[in-house]
Design a protein that fits this description.
single chain, 59 residues, mainly alpha, 2 helices, 46% helix, 0% strand
Length: 59
Amino acid sequence: MAAPTASAQPAPDEGLVKLEETIHRGGFWRLVPEYVPRVYAPVDRPLLEHVETCLRRLA
């Protein structure tokens, strides 16, 4: 299977919008245990960059 081309991937801002919509519709929360708080910071580019930086430290 070939990797998607750059034109096939959504623009970063469109991706953020889709992620935010998924979270608000509950698409994310069905994957986590009930004890995990459902309050979260708004999804924006600085937050995603912070998460990426932290994940790279753990890798």
